[in-house]
Design goal:
Strand content: under 5%
Shape: elongated
Number of helices: 9
Number of strands: 0
Oligomer: single chain
């Protein structure tokens, strides 16, 4: 207690406490700045290592997926000046290891995460990654071991960007419907059918796929892996595919309801 202190000593004690508080605040600010500096240096070293690995992945291909996973987690700290170079590097890797579905998903998530967080990158053409996912859907079993990541990838491709060519979206609708019908696993069939419903919800321009009238003349190019040139509006979306899948009955009713 300060009751026994003189008025002068009480004033000195009060000033000492005030100075101590000021010093504590300054020390905390210095510590915070030091931590920020250290974190920045660590990120720079981390990206230097990851970028170096991506430049020559053949040295240890098994680490590619882990590398892309790390980049997708920390890419918010990247500047726009690195985005173009990194995107081109990732495209090259996807082409070289086109059969690695998991790697393709990680690559797509990394690129779109960066694109969404870097305003200057939002206008860049990322069609290559749509083509990658579209090709993966051709085999309904390919995505089954990675459904959580596939769901994240789908959200990046179609929910983060509102303006897409309707032909591209319609082509994905056809392929998702086919995948939902062909998939042997219930969880896979549900994933594909829910993605299909999301497309119709977010992109009303593809509703003509559900109508009896043929929108365009010609033939739908089912086996083509470029969704922009498949002529999807030349074929009506076959909802009867879902009748043989009880787990998709709710999705079937919702899609049918879009016709009303």
């Amino acid at each position: 207690t300060q009751s026994h202190l003189s008025k002068r000593n009480r004033k000195l004690a009060k000033e000492e406490k005030k100075e101590a508080r000021k010093k504590a605040i300054i020390d905390a600010q210095v510590t915070q700045k030091q931590h920020q500096k250290w974190a920045k240096e660590i990120r720079e070293h981390l990206f230097a290592i990851l970028f170096g690995f991506l430049k020559s992945p053949e040295k240890n291909v098994s680490l590619l997926s882990s590398c892309m996973s790390a980049i997708s987690k920390f890419c918010e700290f990247l500047g726009i000046e690195y985005f173009s170079d990194l995107t081109n590097c990732i495209k090259k890797i996807c082409k070289e290891y086109c059969d690695d579905v998991l790697l393709s998903l990680y690559c797509t998530c990394a690129v779109f995460t960066m694109s969404n967080r870097l305003e200057a990158a939002s206008s860049l053409d990322l069609k290559f990654f749509y083509d990658q996912f579209y090709a993966a859907l051709q085999d309904s079993k390919a995505l089954l071991p990675h459904l959580t990541l596939a769901q994240k990838t789908f959200a990046h491709l179609f929910k983060s960007r509102k303006i897409l060519p309707k032909e591209r979206v319609a082509s994905f609708a056809h392929r998702l419907a086919q995948a939902a019908s062909n998939c042997e696993k219930v969880e896979g069939s549900l994933f594909y059918s829910e993605c299909l419903l999301d497309l119709f919800t977010h992109y009303p321009s593809i509703k003509p796929l559900l109508q009896d009238e043929q929108v365009n003349n010609g033939a739908y190019l089912e086996s083509c892996n470029d969704p922009d040139i498949c002529r999807p509006f030349c074929r009506k979306l076959d909802l009867t595919l879902f009748k043989k899948r009880p787990e998709c009955s709710v999705i079937f009713r919702k899609l049918s309801g879009l016709l009303n």
